[in-house]
Amino acid sequence: MIELYGLAPIIRIFFSTLLFIAISLQTIRLLLLLSHKEYKIPWAFLSHEIFMLAHLILAIMLVTITLLQRNIAAGYFYEFRFIDVIPVILGLWIMLKHRKQEQLVCSILLLPTLPIYTFAYSQYFFLFSNLYFVFRSAVLLDMEWHRIKGSITRLSVKEAVDLFPGGILYGDGKGRTLIANPTMNRLLSALAIQSATDAVLLWESLMKIQDSYNVSVRALDDKLLIRIRNAGTWLFSNQTIIIKKKSYLQLLAIDITDEDVLTREMEQSNKKLEELGRELSSAIKNIEQLEQEREILRMKTRVHDILGQRLSILSRLLESDITAQDIINKFKPLLTDLTQAITETIDISPQYLLSSLTHSFSLIGTGIHIKGTLPEAQEVAGVFAEVIRECATNAVRHADAGNVYVEFLENDEEYRLLVQNDGTTPSDPIVEGGGVPGMRRQVYELGGAFEIGLLPQYYIHIRIPKKQKG
């Protein structure tokens, strides 16, 4: 191509440099294509790229020789230009066979550069068509590099196995270890097992490990949970796999240190919960026993109060001047309902109990004079009614009282009960029997205060605080 001699030297130098870069890129790409054994490249594609490299070499020779010696290209390289016929034909074949358009573009650009064509400014077409091939080599090399990085190769498989955080070991049917990553070798070393051990016998070696200061082993179905001091907790599994009708041994070790820590924490928490459950069960039994004892005490107090009331009434009737028949007529109703009064529920209405007391003591001429009304709080009202019954019974039995005065007081903070009688004031210190402690206990259970006084008359004063809302 003698027309190239007419170009400025700087242009020929520039394109010579570009063609040299293109030859380097195309050579690297061909080496990558040939070294990739994981997939087979069609012969047409590979042949096309080889002849494209030959075209680039011929092109740089045509351009470079013009800088060294004149008229040499026409004489020595004219016939070599027919080599471009091969990539032209291959490009057309690839287009028709594989529907790839890029090779067709190369054929179109190469066709006018053949020696059979001569036209004005052909040297410029030659240079700019080769400029396309320079950029083509760079783009296709970049695409090939990214494709290799994204594909699975033997090297990438080995790298993935080595970087796997767990342990991996594969052996063939004869027990030869084919691959073992660094994690598995480190674990076997920590367990004092040689990495060169027969892969078939390796699992048996793991099964024979005894618990020690540094290692503890626990069988989980067909797996082994091995805790290694300063190396974490690992779950080993053994499996035979079939690939292309060949059997291989697969030994895996998965790091479950975090899960094991959580499991042990849960086990400890469960043990604590079980202990708390036993303590709670024991506490419930104690509460049931205490509640049973409390009910027994309440029943004893109730029997004491009711029997004391009836006996006091009977004693007063016997001391009176009325006839025996009148005594029987008055006391008989109190005897007939004695069992019912004792077995009645403790939650009997305080109002009914107070009305019954007033009627019962009226039979012997003892009046219960009430000022005010029972509190609306039924629990407090019940305690007040029980206290009034015990006070009335004691007034009749011990003080020979003819009247019992009851006064209910209330303010924003507390309920108050004042009980007095007109009986004989005791001269000796008061000795509390079974009734007074029972009254005191009921008041204290509600957080109240219990007071006994003698001046100016014998009295009992009770204060129970109101429960604050919210």
TrEMBL record:
Q: Which residues cross the membrane?
A: 13-34, 46-68, 80-96, 108-135
List UniProt keywords, sorted A-Z: Coiled coil, Kinase, Membrane, Transferase, Transmembrane, Transmembrane helix
Q: Which residues form a coiled coil?
A: 259-300
Enumerate the catalysed reactions.
ATP + protein L-histidine = ADP + protein N-phospho-L-histidine
Example GO biological process: phosphorelay signal transduction system
Q: Does the keyword Transferase apply?
A: yes
Give any GO molecular function from the UniProt entry: protein histidine kinase activity
Instruction: Report the EC code(s) recorded for this entry.
Output: 2.7.13.3
Q: Which PANTHER family match?
A: NITRATE/NITRITE SENSOR PROTEIN NARX-RELATED, NITRATE_NITRITE SENSOR PROTEIN NARQ
* Full protein name: histidine kinase
Q: What is the lineage of its organism?
A: unclassified sequences, metagenomes, ecological metagenomes
